[in-house]
Amino acid sequence: MSSQLLVSGARDDANNAHVPEVIFPAGNNDFREVRNRCARACREFNNTPEDADPEKRSQKWLDIVRPDRDRREDGPAITHDQTFANPNLKAKTPFVKPPVWIDYGIRLHVGGSTFINRDCKIMDTPVADIVIGEGCNIGPNCVIVGVKHPLRLDERLMRHSIGQPVTIGNDVWIGANVTIL
């Protein structure tokens, strides 16, 4: 992508750490194409019945988060029902109840043993990762936001967005209607 990106940062006072932020032109044609592709993939996923074949649901999820993968390497899907029966099995894709709404998908990484309930909205960016670990449970109607906009008017008028990473560790339970910024 030929867009110019600017890396800055903010302080995470709770951990006394530097949190990288990347300023990017969200209206750029390359970014718009990625958003449109992700919107189509989300629509396909959301239109796939919850009780559809696990292979199909897994492929539809991977179309959102790994659109450029070699589909021959997808392999058989391991369902979450199978992992309950045999804890030695590891699902490679999370169990996600539709609908789910994701902006870009390409920098979203979700552990295969994670469960995401209905109406999850992930406002991700093409410039910063959102990572959700293994064994997480995310309640219905949650929002995970990895993008923000400048606070100062003169900076907002430039129409840039700011991407920042979001990391949710392993085995985290997030109740219903939670917003993570």
From TrEMBL:
Q: Which InterPro entries match?
A: Hexapeptide_acetyltransf (IPR051159), Trimer_LpxA-like_sf (IPR011004)
Gene Ontology molecular function terms on file: O-acyltransferase activity
Basic and acidic residues composition bias: residue spans: 54-75
Q: Where is this region: Disordered?
A: 46-78
The name this protein goes by in its record: Maltose O-acetyltransferase
Where does this protein come from, organism-wise? Madurella mycetomatis
